[in-house]
Amino acid sequence: MTTDSASQKIIFFIAEDWFACSHWLPLLSSTKLNGFEVVLITNVTSHLSELERHGIRVVPLNIVRQSLNPLSALRTIYRLVKIYRTEQPDICHHIAIKPMLLGSIAAALVNVKHRVNWVAGLGWLFISQGWLPSLLKRSVTKVLGFLLKSTAVIVENGDDAAVMQGIGVPLSHITLIRGAGVDARIFSPKQKESESPVVVVLPARMLWDKGVGEFVEAAALLKAEQLDVRFVLVGGTDIGNPASITEAQLQTWQASEHIEWWGRREDMPKVLEAADIVCLPSYREGLPKALLEAAASGKPIVTTDVPGCREVVINEYNGLVVAEKSAEKLAIALRRLITDSALRHRMGQAGRELVLQEFSQEIIVGKVLSVYERLINE
């Protein structure tokens, strides 16, 4: 950076420590290496030691993501105000909708000089139907529009940029940075031990809006055709999300023998080494890191034509893109890749090249540091 970042303190507010480690640890570490004092506010569960190993100072904050209780939100804002007053950050960086909302209120009350808000997907609230989500969405967008119009806003795809403009954020305040990046050295093409059976992996939190239900239906359709294929769900449940699938449901699917559920895995490079195809039939994303990891690992992808997913997958180039919420169309695309190893190889190579050109960790971190530099120099 061209400015003296050594005297600058940045506070990150990320709701969960596992999310900080799985997606944002390279950014946290790189920010520290570039001379910033880095503080992370997060709900501490089991990743404190990993964060501290990277020199990140953690301030624990218990936040219930699924809570809609306004009193709970006010208590969180009160605690954030106390932390911001104590820490006196030069920049606060809030990641995802709830931290953006609560953190921005607290930062405004304390008058933190520079505020960055990262829209890491618009989440359950913007996908769900019904009167309650619609009411909450109207309320949240109105408040967000007021809070974010005087901050730097990072979005991961063009659709979310349009949403931010629609709620009143000036275009000049919006920066498009496509995802959190991926370490192309860790996630790299490796030779699979056995060519058969073909292994199709869905790597995500076990949420209905990740398209898990459609994946299970597609698996049943293709298993009925006696194809030599395994369908694997990789990811844990997320009780903090209203769209979470119960463990009982996942066990029921596994008992059907159409589906294997491997649970949450910390060794994703190894998981992807065992995969032939990666599938994410999501309803909406910011920009899914799981697909970046798959592409970096040289795996062809089947995904849906929704915000975020279509940022990573170019149809017929590094994967196949289908309509959302259609198990039948998903099965057709999967069948095509399952039965054509040459196509899988060609698309996997194209995905690797795309990551190296546009989505590497170094490229993404450099863009974020440029946002900080611009704010400080102002």
Automatic annotation (TrEMBL):
InterPro entries: Glyco_trans_1 (IPR001296), Glyco_trans_4-like_N (IPR028098)
Ranges of residues in domain Glycosyltransferase subfamily 4-like N-terminal: 9-124
SUPFAM superfamilies named in the record: UDP-Glycosyltransferase/glycogen phosphorylase
Pfam families, sorted: Glyco_trans_4_2, Glycos_transf_1
Limits of the Glycosyl transferase family domain: 188-353
Highest taxon of the lineage: Bacteria
Signal sequence bounds: none
Protein name: Glycosyltransferase family 4 protein
